[in-house]
Specification:
The protein is an alpha/beta fold and about 240 residues long. The protein is about 35% helix and about 25% strand. β6, α4 and β7 form a beta-alpha-beta unit. α1 packs antiparallel against α8. This is ABC-type amino acid transport substrate-binding protein.
């Protein structure tokens, strides 16, 4: 399982001798990029002597929990999230990025932005903001409950294409042993910077977390960690 491939990263958050504070974050279940973002944040929070725990739930459920304050925030979401969920406060700079990509079983064309898939039937994962925003107004969009269910529906020809971030799609397709049938088209639909969010009751913590992210970004530590995580997951048996 791909989670096992990066088990060593738990060392980054090993508890020091004194007690740690605890932050619980919503994590969209079975989305590999959410796992990567979570482990990146684990390293960030470890520098603040704060331990992270994750609540694995579907995308819409994650937003319901985090915006209501039932958990402490979201691992990573698109930059406009606070507009629709004002109780969630964005932490800057961005913690990660995604590259939404088009996957299919039979089509071949050069992707030229979201409009290039407008005339096809499209699968997305419900609650994934980048996919919902990119396909808004399109006529034939099916919102699925999870990435794996979307892949199985594409394999069954329930729609022409599906959209998910390139990395997560590649991992999930391989996990289901469908890489000989389902493939991504090029280039990706774009690159979207995504941000960590905390519930407003943790507003005082936001600049502290942002400062650590900025320091790790400037030193190259964050990029190195992301690259290592992605490579390990993609190469895991």
């Amino acid at each position: 399982m791909w989670r096992i491939a990066v088990a060593w990263l738990s060392l980054l958050a090993a508890a020091p001798s004194q007690a740690q504070d605890l932050i619980r974050l919503a994590r969209i279940a079975d989305i590999p990029d959410q796992y990567v973002g979570g482990e990146m944040l684990r390293a960030v929070y470890a520098k603040l002597n704060i331990k992270l725990e994750f609540e694995d739930v579907p995308g819409k459920r994650a937003l319901a929990l985090s915006s209501a304050g039932e958990v402490d925030g979201e691992i990573q979401r698109i930059g406009t999230l606070s507009r629709d969920y004002p109780t969630l406060v964005q932490v800057t700079p961005a913690i990660n990025y995604i590259e939404p990509a088009v996957f299919t079983t039979k089509l071949h064309f050069d992707v030229a932005g979201w409009d290039s898939i407008r005339d096809y039937s499209i699968g997305i994962v419900r609650g994934v903001g980048s996919s919902e925003a990119g396909t808004r107004g399109m006529a034939r969009v099916t919102a699925t409950t999870s990435l794996e269910s979307m892949i199985k529906m594409l394999d069954a020809d329930r729609f022409d294409v599906m959209v998910t971030d390139l990395f997560s799609g590649l991992v999930a397709v391989r996990k289901l042993n469908l890489q000989a049938r389902i493939y991504p088209l090029s280039p990706p639909l774009g690159r979207i910077h995504i941000y960590h969010y905390l519930h407003e009751r943790h507003r005082a913590l936001v600049p502290e977390v942002g400062k650590v992210i900025a320091q790790m970004e400037a030193s190259g530590e964050l990029a190195t960690l992301r690259e290592r995580l992605v490579k390990q997951i993609l190469s895991a048996p």
